[in-house]
Amino acid sequence: MTQQQFQAIQLRRDFLKNVASGIGMVALGDLLARDGLTAANLPDVNPLAPKPPHFEAKAKHVIFMFMEGGPSQYELFDPKPALEDHHGQALPESMTKDLKLAFIKPSARVMASKFAFHRHGQSGMELSELMPKLGTVADDICLVRSMHTDAFNHHPGQLLLFTGHTQFGRPTMGAWSVYGLGSESQNLPGFVVLTSGRGTSGGSSNFSSGFLPSHYQGTVFRNSGEPILYLSNPEGVSDALQEETLRSVRRLNEIQFEATGDLEIASRISSYELAYRMQMSAPELLDFSDEPDHILEGYGVNSDDEGQRQYATNCLLARRMVERGVRFVLMMDASWDDHSGLNQNLPKRCRKVDQSNAYLVQDLKQRGLLDETLVVWGGEFGRTPMVELRRPDDADSAGRDHHPNAYSMWMTGGGLRGGQVLGKTDDLCLNVVEDPVHVHDLQATVLHLLGFDHQKLTYRHMGRDFRLTDVSGRVVDKLLS
Prior knowledge:
The protein is α/β, with parallel strands linked by helices. Helices cover 36% and strands 17% of the residues. Strands 1, 4, 5, 6, 7, 8, 11, 12 and 15 form a nine-stranded mixed sheet that branches. A two-stranded antiparallel sheet has the order 2-3. Strands 9-10 form a two-stranded antiparallel ribbon.
């Protein structure tokens, strides 16, 4: 081959290199136009659009009522008269050697509960005198007395409950639900967070999207004032100006989409437009003027007690969100961490939540929403049978330490069989002895009721598929209707 021939070849290659991308773009443009995907007809990419589950779902929505800190099962859900026999005594080492304790020593003395239990409903479910209103819906709820977890401190316990792992960075249960199912709401986020009390130790890690795209994370709503911080227009920005700004941003994004074909741009536009719609719908959500007086009274929204009023408002908001298609509502109430003053603090806390808990169940039921709404109530672990005395000279300071081996939660609606007690603990509630339910089993069951095989709802990250239940978990069939 001569030098002249070689140069000719190079020139042809240069020509193809310079024009091939243009030819390709012409062809791509023709294909996109046929599919209606040109900038003039930007695709409607909504990451929160409803998606089909793996199989027919029993539940469409979840209201997870998280009582941060660990409510005491001894005082609320799991009567243990045997504590009276050991009251004031230390347990033998053979019974305490495997306990994971955060603050007390295994030699701490046993403390019996001072609160009575009563039977409720046709099921005869035993509940504490501190939860009398909950007793009125005993035949609708499933009481699980055999919960257990692996973590004995708050933040790891909350991470394990909501993400399936004790380390940061994993998606939470609400994020997984919206990732799998999307949302039926057009004007509100698919995953909403409501808070009451002084704040949870887990904070935003309880509703993070982790390595999932950020539009699956929880959006915090406030129950008074501005529903969402920074959602409303700043001073001097009119609705007309905002609309023109959104149109201008959309036009710029359309130009960028025309140049790149990146569907993330269309997704971004969808997020902007959802935020705009939320400006209209979020304030309406907090306007209870359309709620009859008996509803407000039933929830306790007008209570003189600020704590009860805040919690009741969140319960009513949760119902209103479900009505509007929100997929997952996380209510976080703090703090149930009674290391001291248990007998003084717990009755006050129960009075704050008991009426609203029961009325939420009743309200959902009479509206025909309970069958499609799964409600879960509980904390990240339970409490020890042994007393914690931070002031040994003050008996009123008595409390209980963290206890991950055995505790209680209750659930209702969404495909569960009400009026049953599942599981059993030993005489002192040190360990589960019948039908154990790990937090991964709870997660698997929640996903099952939403229509998912928990082993197949996965997301590829860092070269492998992750799931909410990590590498374990089973559906608790006995809970299902």
